[in-house]
């Protein structure tokens, strides 16, 4: 176990955290502003990955695929909100959970019909296929650094939109009291539509970024959705700052745990037992952290205190 390996996995964990932030940022705004539980948010990740891969095949350019896929995911989010989501804003959470769970199944089957059941694979663009020497003995993939850069830029854009722009003030007003905000002249329906579509776009962007790193297949967004929900719980519902820091924390803990816990277990167990128990224990770390934080801070690290 070397310092170079530790630093490499630390960067991998940061990159995983950035990806989780792209997913959870939109989800926490949707939940905090609209009080809507959207389990189909993970499907937006899958759709973003498939659409980007489709345009990549047409244009033979990774970057053109991303450029074409971003407005497509935004339009898809608006269409979904108009056709289905807006009808459930005033329903209880159980109905929201049921309808969005049904959307997960629907989208997975549509993807199988359109693209087939076999996994698709994207490729890293040649310009980002090399490694960057972060330290003399630490080469790191340029594409992963690209993902980190895109995530940080996205975080800054979200911060500016929410905290420095008029639309952010309207979002916060709608979150605090949508009835009063509507009485003051804010078009709440349009605001909610834009918030939902923007959240879908950032989730789709996460799918576009991880496409070249993994197989693109139906249901690929569900495991990420579970972690994104944990991110929101730990960071606090509706908090962009909480989503960012908790996503980074979870990404690092999950990645380091999967790599180093088996090493630690081999000090006490044989290799096969350690390799079998390591992944299970590492996946538990995130949920143990969530339990501890909820005991100490029931509203999350940056969540609003209930009154």
What does the model show?
This protein is an all-alpha fold. Helices cover 73% and strands 3% of the residues. It is built from eleven helices and two strands. A hairpin with a 2-residue loop joins β1 (131-135) and β2. α9 (222-235) crosses α10.
According to DSSP, the number of beta strands is 2
Strand portion, in percent? Answer: under 5%
Which spans have pLDDT < 50 for at least 5 consecutive residues?
A: none
Order of helices and strands: HHHHEEHHHHHHH
List keywords for this structure.
globular; two-stranded antiparallel ribbon; 11 helices; mainly alpha; 307 residues
Layout of SSEs?
Blueprint: H1 3-34, H2 41-59, H3 62-83, H4 93-115, E1 131-135, E2 138-141, H5 142-163, H6 166-176, H7 178-183, H8 188-210, H9 222-235, H10 240-265, H11 271-296
Antiparallel strand pairs: 1-2
Condensed summary:
Helix content is 73%, strand content 3%.
